[in-house]
Write a structure and sequence with these properties.
Layout (H helix, E strand, L loop, with lengths): L1 H10 L1 H5 L19 H11 L5 E12 L4 E11 L4 E12 L2 E11 L3 E6 L6 E4 L3 H14 L2 H9 L4 E6 L2 E6 L3 H13 L4 H12 L1 E13 L5 E12 L8 E10 L11 H6 L1 E2 L10
Parallel strand pairs: 6-12
Antiparallel strand pairs: 1-2, 1-11, 2-3, 3-4, 4-5, 5-6, 7-8, 8-9, 9-10, 10-11
Helix pairs in contact: 1-7, 3-5
């Protein structure tokens, strides 16, 4: 049961990470005026429309009590106006002495998503012109848009604490266990289609979240996002078996409005095989 829960959570990892660990700088702001979390969130939200492009590096680690682990490392380049996304993700799975890995590469523009994995040389193209394709396009956009994370913070601003650390404002989640569960649930379910939401909701219903740390770091001068750290542990409910789950996510944003324009390579477009959007729907 717990393995199925992990797989379901992985489907929405992008949503949890969108927006951009913890700031490790020390010392800082003894002589600076105090600021509350609400003000930082509002000012950061106001800066989001000024982000035209950015780079993000993310790592996610999952550990199960039976020794199964999964590591995901993603490098992304995001362009809002074009729109355009480039992403490369390496996924490693370890079960006892068995290790497997795969690298996924994708390009996304306003017309289609192109995907290839390291187990094959063939690119697949999924157009956004069908109703299912439009849903896929919308899901990809929301998962990579930095404003998604800010929308989550705004709805839980009463639970957020802020401190100043050198050149950063560090936002941390400070709610109780009930609020923690609500926070995680909204992070997982936000902006999903109906099929995805039902799958994740079933997974959340069988889990007890026992701990969580959430840290979102923004620049003091620009109020632009810098990094995000999330970690939590969970156990299945008593009637759902035994075991435990630990997940940690670290992501850094850099090169805001500094990237050169990218396009999908001509050979990728010319060689890609068209695939119906329904084959990928629910995987993003």
């Amino acid at each position: 049961m717990l393995k199925k829960v992990v797989l379901a959570i992985l489907l929405t990892a992008g949503l949890l990470l969108a927006g951009c660990a913890a700031d490790n700088s020390k010392g800082g702001a003894a002589n600076q005026p105090k600021i509350n979390a609400d003000t930082v969130i509002i000012k950061t939200t106001n800066q989001m429309n000024k982000i035209k492009n950015m780079e993000m590096n993310m790592s996610m680690d999952i550990e199960l009590s039976d020794g199964v682990t999964q590591t995901m490392k993603t490098h992304s380049k995001y362009f809002r106006a074009q729109p355009f996304i480039y992403q490369s993700t390496r996924i490693e799975n370890k079960t006892g002495s068995s290790n497997t890995s795969v690298v996924l590469e994708q390009y996304v523009d306003d017309q289609a998503v192109y995907v290839k994995n390291s187990n094959g040389k063939q690119w697949a193209k999924v157009s956004f012109d069908s109703s299912t394709g439009k849903l896929l396009k919308d899901s990809l956009k929301k998962q990579t848009d930095p404003s998604t994370q800010l929308g989550l913070l705004k709805s839980f601003k009463k639970n957020m604490e802020v401190k100043q650390s050198r050149s950063s404002y560090v936002l941390r989640f400070g709610g109780n266990k009930k609020e923690l569960r609500a926070f995680i649930q909204k992070a997982m379910l936000k902006n999903l289609n109906a099929t995805q939401e039902q799958a994740i909701q079933r997974s959340l219903d069988v889990m007890n979240f026992t701990s969580m740390q959430y840290t979102y770091v923004v620049d003091q001068k620009t109020y632009q996002p810098k990094s995000l750290n999330v970690s939590f542990t969970a156990n299945p409910k008593s009637d759902q078996g035994s075991g435990s789950l630990k997940m940690t996510v670290h992501s850094d944003i850099s090169k805001i409005n500094q990237l050169k324009t990218m396009t999908i390579p001509a050979d990728v477009k010319s060689k890609a095989i068209e695939v119906d959007a329904s084959r990928l729907h629910g995987q993003f």
